[in-house]
Here is the input.
Amino acid sequence: MSQSTTPTGPAKSKRARRGTKGEKPAKPDGCPLTPHPNGQWCKKVKGKIHFFGVWHDLPGALLRWEEAKDDLIKGRPYRPAVEGAFDVDACVSLFLGWKASLVATGELSHAMWRDYKRVCERIIEVFGRHREVADLRPEDFERIRAAVAKRPGKSGGFGPVALSKFVTCVKSVFKYGSDEGHIDRPIGFGKAFSRPPKKLLRKLKNERDRKMFDAAEIWAMLDKADGALRPMIWLGINCGFGNADCGTLPMRAVDLAGGWIEYERPKTHALRRCPLWPETVKGLRAWLRVRPTPKDEADAELLFVTKYGGSWFKAESSDNPVSKETRKLLNDMGIKRKGCNFYSLRHATATIGSRARDAEALRLIMGHTEAANDMTSQYIEERVSDERLLAVSNTIRKWLLAGKPKRKAAAK
Here is the structure.
């Protein structure tokens, strides 16, 4: 039988450990601890016996058990909390507080904050809430990576792309604690706590299905969609709109008479200017004729509102109405390829639009920011001409029209 020393310190001699004379006490009803012949209260966890104090101090033993049980049950090494120490709980709390302040100023999305929160919850789960940050070692980070990584042939766990993001996020949590002066020494993550190699990511990208629809599939979606989703699909392929772009699009940004959309994209605040196709304008006009009255005054300026008069964009929730309605549509059509969703329309816009060989114009249509290492763009003062934007947009439209299924002639 495997044994372990008491969480409160190293094992003492048998007589010293008893701390009292007399008969072994009976185990009280409902007590999680058992009196051991060596004079201490104990508990067997995961095949090991752990000791929590002498017989005459049952309240103290129960207190130590409560402090240690979360770590022991989850297989983590228990280390008593050190008063005044900077622990994992304090580190993740400060990090999430900082990120929450960025959400409040519009510098970070609620969705990204929820991603950070999930990573922080996993950090606490694996390391323990009261683990001192200065006590973390490379083997601890190797353990958390192994805990989340997907195993070959098994379900669950993060694949290489998600694992890469997870590793980066964990490092940023502890780097923040270090940068703020709460950690006296650099955190040793170790070589094992690294992102998957780029060649593996490239291999997976080559093997996966393309995350875009072909022209025939887009026409099928347009034929089957109704309500707000149909004009959203037109904007998705015409302008590379994503879920949030549709959900937050203000009516003032849309010039149906002139056939243009111009506004700052919510995600990046990059300027977006895009010519509208005649088909897109027709779809938007049809929608405006049946657009429900917004229930909330804050949504009055939105182009798209749900049939209940609410917003299609839920900033503070993981709910995504555009994704849900698109998934219902694709299920009805029998399209269930992994990675195919409303955002796949944006992939098609970028992919086909690149054939025009005008990256600057495509970037303005998509609402992309300049590359960090593209210094030349920082010096260009002349705006991309509308002719260039139309050339890119027409390239996409020609591709879509060429893929439109021909209608069978009606029988005489």
Observations:
- The longest strand covers residues 48-54.
- Confidence is low (pLDDT under 50) at residues 8-20.
- Residues 357 and 384 are 14 Å apart (CA to CA).
